[in-house]
Structures are given as C-alpha cells and as structure tokens.
Amino acid sequence: MAQLAVVGAGYVGLVTAACLSEFGHQVTCIEVDEGKLRRLLAGDLPIHEPGLSDLVSKHTLDARLQFIGEYTGIDDAEFVFIAVPTPSSKDGSADTSYVMQAVETLIPHARPGSVIVIKSTVPIGTADKIAGLASVLAAGIAVVSNPEFLRQGTAVHDFMAPDRVVIGASSPHEAARVAHLYASLEAPIVAVDRRSAELAKYAANALLATRISFMNEISRIASAVHADVDDVARIVGMDRRIGPAFLKAGLGWGGSCFPKDVLALCSVAATNGCRTPILEAVYETNELQREHAAELLLDAVRTIQDPVVAILGLAFKPNTDDVRGSPALSIAQRLLKEGVIVRAHDPFALVNAGRALPEVECRADAYSTLDGADALLLATEWEEYGALDWMLVRETMRGKTILDGRNALNGELLGELGFRYWSFGRATTNGNGLVPKVHANGVAPEVDANGARPGVQEAGV
Ligand code: UDX
C-alpha cells in the first residue's frame, strides 16, 4: 500500500482521498481553507455525497485518512494528487492558477522521485507544462494525468466502479506506478500519453452535453410535427451503437462541469487554430432551451397583474444541493427582470440558491410555493414532486399553467385535472401549446379562451 497526498478537499479531492484510503492506501489530504479544514477535522463534511461521510469517518478512525492545512506533511508521499478547481475565466478558458499554485507550493516539500497526479480537469498540455518546470525536473518528479469522471450524487460509486481508469503518462513505467494504486479495481486501465488523457476528459463531457442538446433540438421538431420526443429517444437509444443514456430532453444541462468544460474545450481549440461549430451549437442550444422556457412562462402570465411563477427544483439535477449552472436560476433571473414574482422550492438546494439569487422567494415546502401561483415550472425532477397531490395544487394555484421542464410529470393526468400542461416535445401536444391536437378521428378539440383544451395536454416547445 502506498503513501499518498491529495491537494484539495473539494468535491473531487474529498471523494478521491476517501476512496483511495478505502483501497488501503495511507492518505493525507491538504485543505488550505481554514474554515473547511476545521469542519473536516470536526467530522463535518462540506459536501453532501452518498456514502462519502461513512468512508471519511471509517478511515479517519482507522487513521488511514488525515486532513492537514499545510504542505509540510507530504514529504513521505510517493504520489501527490492535485484536485483543485479550474474555474472558467471570463473568456471561457479554464483558469489553471490554482493548479499551478498548488504545484509550486508542494515542490519544496515533495519527496524526490515522487509522482504528481493531476485529477483536476485541465487544458491540454498542462501536465506537460508542469513536467517541464525546472523545479520538477530537478527533483526527478514524474507528472501523470489521471482525469476523473465522477457524477455528483454517485461520485463514490463512480470512483469505486469506474467504466475505465485513464492514465496519461510519458512512459509505461510511470503509468504502471499509478495503475498499481488502482489494482483492487476490476475496471480497464487505459494508459495513453498525457495530452490524450486530458483531451479525453473534455471530449467525454462534451459528448454527453452534445447528446442532450441534440435531443433537445429533436424535442422542438417533435413538438412541431406532433411526435413524442420520449418515444423517439427510447427508440434511438435502443440502437446498441447509440445507447439510451443522456438522451432526456428538457431544460438542458447545468452543473459545475458541462458548461465550464464545453467552453474550455472551445477555448483550447481556438488557441490551437481549430474551429468548433458543433461545440458552439451544443452550448447555444442549451442556452436556447432556457430562453424558450422563460418566454413560455412570460407568455402564460403576461396579462396578469403582479404575476407569480413558482419554480419547483433549483439544483442543477436531483440528489444534489449544487445550483451552479442551474437552468432554474437563469430562468428565475430572466423572470425577475421582467417584473415577475418568483417563488421557489427545493428539498436540498434552498441555502445555496438563496445565496446565488436572493431575490427569489424561497419556501420550505412545495405546496406553499404553489399556493396562489399563476404558473409552475418544474425545473429539477426530484422524486417528491411526482408524488404531489395535484388536486390540491389545482385548488390552490391561481393559474393553471404547468411547464414541465424535465418531461417528468404525468401530463395526461394533469390535463385531466384541468391544468394547461406544457412539456418539451412530448406527444398529445402541439407546437407552442396553441395548435390544436389532432384526435384519433382526425378532429381537433375546441380551444378555450386561455388557449387550453380541457383534458388535453399541451407542449411547451
Ligand atoms: C458530469 C459528468 O457526467 C461526469 O462524468 C463529470 O465528471 C462531471 O460532469 P454531473 O455534473 O454530476 O457529472 O452531472 P450529470 O449527471 O452528468 O448531468 C449533467 C446535466 O445534464 C444535469 O443538469 C442533468 O439534468 C442534465 N441531463 C442529464 C439532461 O438534461 N438529460 C440527460 O439525459 C442527462
């Protein structure tokens, strides 16, 4: 078993440190933020991630995992993992200053002949650049890229049962040293050069984002031609060459990775003289979904005085309290700008959302959020929203528009209850909720004064 250090106890660092100690390694995790370190030492994790807290307490107890605030404690580490953030700069490029700062600070304390392992998502060429630093060369330190593919909410599982472990190294010997750390896993180890490993990380995230944006574009077409995007996605995904994952249409992707990584890849490409029309369209389509949702909601409440829109779900996806890049927040921002009162609920993300957008009226439960609302946007498909008492909701809401931003609700039932149900390309629907649905007998139902047809779902896109 090896002596390891992990720099950064953020989302990736903490999961990496905890899981590597579960493999049996001796891990020292460095966190320079005093507040965060204090919490960690008190056994209080700064992030919510299933299974993480158990691993951290298990291995702090058996002393395989320790947290420190300084780099002085890493002199016996054979491997030093860098897991610090690489946020978006103003021009979209990834800011590597935290990575470079961590490397410079650790070198004087690092053991000669040790290995720096880059976990942070970095622009292609960063590991080569670090490997070429005079101080790194002088200490005989190797530099290896080992990107992470962790999803929030399943990060511990993703680390312990990965689809592959990618190791980018400049020699088979260096790759083998890092591969050895993962010996207890059954996953394939893919050893490549450093630049390919770095690019593979960006390409994986960009391709997942592309699939979603593509399906969102299809959802617009589905609405226009009276097809059902969910059925289309199911059929397309049954093709084994394509597969079913990441084809769900809706408000689009958010989070701390997809938006940042798509932009960073565009920036790397531009710096190297490559054009990226696909990536740009992927990003733009994602923005369009949000704009379109905001327009639909504004249309629904335009004639109402002091309109109220209720948003259910603020996290960028269910089972996380993270609101970074969340579609809900950008739509809320737009509505607020147009003078709409925005109320919102989220089972986990209210604190973070309140910090990010204090103008939103955050409520502690879904029913009080919906009480008196003119329209509802379902922005995050938390399971509990599917189980709401919709009869009760219908009685307490002032209006009857529901925009299902995740194609997650039972539109048929909501239609029967008298709601005006809009989705993103589901069937029994129409273009923008205004074109009559054609019945089996080929006849369109009557449209009432609100543009709604009793008992009929309408589409939002
Ligand atoms: C992602 C990558 O999956 C992970 O490998 C990488 O390391 C970090 O970025 P994460 O940000 O946790 O993980 O979220 P993910 O589960 O991938 O979802 C990203 C976004 O896409 C969410 O906003 C989600 O709602 C949206 N999404 C996902 C869709 O809109 N449709 C889908 O079919 C799938």
Itemize the secondary structure elements and their pairings.
Layout: E1 3-7, H1 11-22, E2 26-30, H2 34-41, H3 52-61, E3 65-68, E4 79-82, H4 97-106, E5 115-118, H5 126-131, H6 134-138, E6 142-145, H7 155-160, E7 165-168, H8 172-181, E8 189-192, H9 194-224, H10 229-237, H11 258-271, H12 277-301, E9 308-312, H13 327-337, E10 341-345, H14 350-356, E11 361-362, H15 366-370, E12 375-378, H16 383-386, H17 390-396, E13 401-404, H18 411-416, E14 420-422
Parallel strand pairs: 1-2, 1-4, 2-3, 4-5, 5-6, 7-8, 9-10, 9-12, 10-11, 12-13, 13-14
Helix pairs in contact: 1-3, 9-11, 9-12, 11-12, 12-13
Bound molecules: uridine-5'-diphosphate-xylopyranose (UDX).
